[in-house]
């Protein structure tokens, strides 16, 4: 019963957040703010190989960061979704085509998360104690596996919650990135000024 109620809590939270995203107009300052935060983060960490994702629909916009990363010759690894809810990681240089969902997905030579310095993961909500709520298909929880790289979740500022419902398979994050700030969640996050 306990497990069911957590699943129900997650479901209702997802619904509320997606509805709020849908009702909120695109805000340019958030797109540029997010790029600024992400660029600052990879610059401070000195990350060379970064896993990111192509934002779609009402998600916080990762496009400006991706453009910057390509221009600055960072190695970008991006996920393609598979029907079995696994992710295939590809070396990204800007090419996309529609994937199993309606939105464009990255294409490129297949790679893995090996030697990735930082994973920038999509999320609907996150909490400073390291919890992340995704869209509910478990793609990222499954893809990260064991001993995963430093991982940050991207959300809008109003999607940072004090705590979130989680299950044992949920992978913890190391930091939260919003259009205005970076919130460190774990002790393995490097102490950078
Ligand atoms: N941009 C992006 N790429 C990603 C993810 C993601 O969350 N965002 N994923 C992370 O796991 C994987 C794909 N997972 C997905 C899981 C659910 C839905 C989905 O239900 N989409 C709804 C709209 C939800 C919304 O408004 O945000 C739909 O298409 O109707 C789509 C992709 C891999 N790539
Ligand atoms: N490592 C795993 N192995 C097998 N099944 C998993 C794993 N992680 C999650 N799942 C399954 O995936 C489903 C969705 O999980 P959950 O609600 O935690 O997704 P999420 O974290 O919101 O989504 P995502 O990781 O795609 O952003 C659940 O039914 C869960 O049992």
UniProtKB/TrEMBL annotation:
EC numbers: 6.3.3.2
CC cofactor: Mg(2+)
Key words, A-Z: ATP-binding, Magnesium, Metal-binding, Nucleotide-binding
Domain of life the protein comes from: Bacteria
Reaction catalysis annotation: (6S)-5-formyl-5,6,7,8-tetrahydrofolate + ATP = (6R)-5,10-methenyltetrahydrofolate + ADP + phosphate
GO molecular function: 5-formyltetrahydrofolate cyclo-ligase activity; ATP binding; metal ion binding
Binding site for substrate: 54, 59
Residues that, per the record, bind ATP: 10-14, 132-140
Pfam families xrefs: 5-FTHF_cyc-lig
Enzyme class: ligase
GO biological process, one term: folic acid-containing compound biosynthetic process
Family of the protein in this entry: Belongs to the 5-formyltetrahydrofolate cyclo-ligase family.
Protein name: 5-formyltetrahydrofolate cyclo-ligase
């Amino acid at each position: 019963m306990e497990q069911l109620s957590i699943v129900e809590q997650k479901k209702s939270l997802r619904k509320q957040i997606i509805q709020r995203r849908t009702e909120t107009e695109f805000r340019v300052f958030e797109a540029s703010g997010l790029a600024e935060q992400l660029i600052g983060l990879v610059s401070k960490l000195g990350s060379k190989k970064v896993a990111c994702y192509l934002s779609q629909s009402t998600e916080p916009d990762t496009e400006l960061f991706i453009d910057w990363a390509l221009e600055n010759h960072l190695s970008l690894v991006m996920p393609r979704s598979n029907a079995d809810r696994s992710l295939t990681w590809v070396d990204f240089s800007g090419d996309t085509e529609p994937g199993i969902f309606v939105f464009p997905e990255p294409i490129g030579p297949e790679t893995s998360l090996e030697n990735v310095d930082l994973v920038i993961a999509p999320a609907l909500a996150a909490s400073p104690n390291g919890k992340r709520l995704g869209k509910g298909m478990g793609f990222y929880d499954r893809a990260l596996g064991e001993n995963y790289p430093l991982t940050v979740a991207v959300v809008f500022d109003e999607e940072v919650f004090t705590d979130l419902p989680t299950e044992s398979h949920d992978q913890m994050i190391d930091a939260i990135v919003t259009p205005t700030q970076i919130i460190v969640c774990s002790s393995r996050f490097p102490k950078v000024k």
